[in-house]
Amino acid sequence: MRRCPQLNYYHLGDLDDFFWAHTRWYAWQAAGETTAIVLLYTAPDPPVMLAILNDNLAHMRLLLAAILPELPPQVYTHLSPGLADVLETRYALSHHGAHDKMVLTSPDHLAQQANQHTVVVLDGTNLPVLEQLYRQAYPGNWFTSRMIETGQYMGIKDQAGQLVCVAGVHVYSPTYRVAALGNITTLSDYRGQGMAAAATAALCKRLFSDVDVIGLNVRSDNAAAIRAYHKVGFNKVADYDEWMLEEKHPEFLSPPRRG
Asked: What is the mean pLDDT of residues 192-204?
């Protein structure tokens, strides 16, 4: 995974003790070398599976086929192109959009963007207002209270002191020196003012004291978000698709007995 950290920032971050207990790993080996890895993150419901190619399409397809009996009946998954059909043996697939993987490659943009607004660090005391913000501005996001414990959430408040914009992380590991940004949003009345870019830039400046690679995932059709990330210094490194997998053959794991 270290050979290509710009594709594997989630994988590397989930090796950290903070996340490790919620992970299950599958590997394909050829000639004594690990050539493909699939990560199942079990904390959310449904679990999330990551199968991201690192120039290893053939071995990743073999690995996915091999682990089919081991997977839960319902899985949300991130799949590189060329893999989805392997899972159709067991699952019905519902497409949840094409996505871009982006990595911060131009950190010299950070200072200019971060200075556009006053950005503050958020902690556990801000949890109620943060959850309220997500209910209003980002109801479908993936956030748990545990994420704010990383200490890597930053926000912008309006003149009345209301939290109106936030940028945070899904994964943060000083040990493996990677971070995956997530849960970035702005209240609708405050969009178009550069707040998301400012909060993201300030967060990246803070993260760079502990990490070397900062990545994020974004829907390919979210033009406004992609523009903001380009301003901060992110660039696309790969694409993938998100799918919901629903088991279509309950007998897949338990074939009927002969009478």
From this structure: 96
